[in-house]
Write a structure and sequence with these properties.
By secondary structure, the protein is an alpha+beta fold. It folds into two domains: 308 residues, Aminopeptidase, CATH 3.40.630; 136 residues, Aminopeptidase i, Domain 2. 28% of the residues lie in helices and 24% in strands. It contains eleven helices and 23 strands. The strands form four sheets. A nine-stranded mixed β-sheet has the order 1-2-3-14-4-15-21-17-19, with helices on both faces. Helix 1 crosses helix 11 and helix 6 packs across helix 11. The longest helix has 20 residues. The chain is globular and about 85 Å long. It starts with 18 loop residues before the first helix and ends with a helix.
Length: 464
């Protein structure tokens, strides 16, 4: 035996791909960039997912009178998360093959009463969402997305800053000439949360106005275009996100750079995979959830009852009834890929990773047996049996993959939806795409890793 065959080292994927696979990779990543541009909020991602699903032959669960093998259905929950399923040949009680990802991303949310004026400017107060480096959100173009309701109850969809002729917005920053005190602070303290106020306008409504004339000008414009007043901000759901589009990165275009790749790179590849499933053995399910970045809470997060409820509804329609014991058996016999991103080794900051147990951009999809922080706090920690089974599926289907932890043991850490799936008595492991500049306004992923993630989910649906 050659002793080198006993060694293990992750492989660089691009050199292993055929020309045809490289073409498939580029096509997939082109569709992915379009998905990112269309879905900068969780609502928009779900809307895009519905459009893609219906084009691929999926129908709303409510329109299906019965469910048979090969049927394709979707269920939307409060416009912010979606479950898609392809009914398998095996009875549902033998379990499902679940791939779950999240579609929310760090951003700046508008406060409920956001509009004010100061120093001849109209501004919007914000409350940041998720784990961000606050200084990264200053001095760059922002777009405003979301929904408002008029006083008559009409929903108005807001999207300002994406079209070429649209205005954009920004959080201004202090000039370095006057930033002596600011620059002496720790990065985490240099920009305060209450200072992330968005520049929203600078003209007055009328020279005769003596009070709030900048604010009144904005309200006049909002009313003319959208039919809303200041009180309508109280019920609005508005998010400020980067105004630029997804781009190829690198002279050779080896990477994708965009806002929101955590976790929409996994959401997109999970979605694409289930759209390509036809007649699986076990029922295949793709679940896209909200609120992961703030703890998976709320009625659209993984901790809500939506997943269990939707699964019970499917079981009832297929089996005729679904009691607690039946649902528990389905969950017990099911397995899940928690489709979430990992941290790629950054050559500028290698010191935070333990390189023997870290993910590298370009080396394929990353399996993470556990996440959590320090002593694995907040982790599900997949079993040896399940890690082996998933690894074998990937190997048997020619998928390049690697493993990682989220940085050095005492450096920090993070969590995913895996622990909440495990609480349902399912086997689960985290897997996804390594990301550079995670949680920044411009995250970077390798195209080869995006392609391998897609192939991983296809293989899981086909062979699990």
């Amino acid at each position: 035996m050659e002793i080198d065959k006993l060694m293990y080292e992750p492989e660089y994927v691009f050199e292993k791909l055929t020309d045809n696979q490289k073409d498939e990779m580029e096509k997939l990543c082109g569709e992915y960039r379009a998905f990112l541009d269309a879905g900068k909020t969780e609502r928009e991602c779900v809307s895009a997912a519905v459009a893609m699903a219906e084009k691929a032959g999926f129908v709303s669960f409510d329109s299906a009178s019965e469910l048979n093998a090969g049927d394709k259905i979707y269920i939307v929950n409060r416009k912010k998360n979606i479950l898609l399923a392809v009914i398998g040949k095996s009875p549902l009680t033998e379990g499902i093959s679940l791939v779950g990802a999240h579609v929310d991303s760090p951003r700046l949310d508008l406060k409920q009463n956001p509009l004010y004026e100061s120093s001849n400017m109209s501004l919007l107060k914000t409350h940041y969402y998720g784990g961000i480096k606050k200084y990264q959100w200053t001095a760059m173009p922002l777009a405003l997305h979301g929904v408002m309701f008029t006083s008559e109850g009409k929903q108005v969809d807001i999207s300002i800053g994406e079209d070429e002729d649209d205005p954009v917005f920004c959080v201004t920053d202090l000039l370095p000439h006057l930033a002596k005190d600011q620059m002496s602070k720790k990065l985490s303290e240099a920009i305060e949360g209450e200072a992330l106020n968005i520049l929203f306008g600078g003209f007055t409504i009328d020279a005769s106005e003596k009070k709030d004339k900048f604010k009144k000008n904005i309200l006049s414009l909002m009313y003319k275009k959208y039919g809303v007043s200041e009180k309508n901000f109280l019920s609005a759901e508005l998010e400020a996100v980067p105004a630029f589009k997804a781009k190829n990165v690198g002279l050779d275009g080896a990477f994708v750079g965009a806002y929101g790749q955590d976790d929409r790179v996994c959401a997109f590849t999970s979605l694409k995979a289930i759209l390509d499933v036809d007649m699986p053995d076990k029922t295949s399910v793709c679940l896209l959830v909200d609120k992961e970045e703030i703890g998976s809470c709320g009625n659209t997060g993984m901790l809500s009852d939506f997943f269990r409820f939707a699964l019970a509804e499917i079981a009832e329609k297929q089996l005729g009834s679904c009691d607690y014991l039946t649902l528990s058996r389905i969950l017990k016999n099911s397995s899940c890929l928690s489709s979430d991103v990992g941290a790629a080794v950054d050559p500028n900051y290698e010191g935070v990773t333990e390189k023997q147990n870290a993910a590298y951009a370009g080396c394929g999809m990353v399996l993470m047996k556990y996440t959590g922080a320090r002593g694995k706090s907040g982790s599900s920690d997949a079993s040896a049996e399940f890690v082996y089974r998933i690894g074998k599926i990937l190997d048997d289907n020619g998928v390049f993959w690697q493993t990682s932890e989220l940085g050095k043991v005492d450096q920090g850490g993070g969590g995913t939806i895996a622990q909440y799936v495990a609480n349902l008595n399912m086997d689960v492991i985290d897997c996804g795409v390594p990301v550079l500049s995670m949680h920044s306004p411009f995250e970077v992923t390798a195209k080869t890793d995006i392609y391998m993630a897609y192939l991983s989910y296809v293989a899981f649906y086909k062979c699990n």
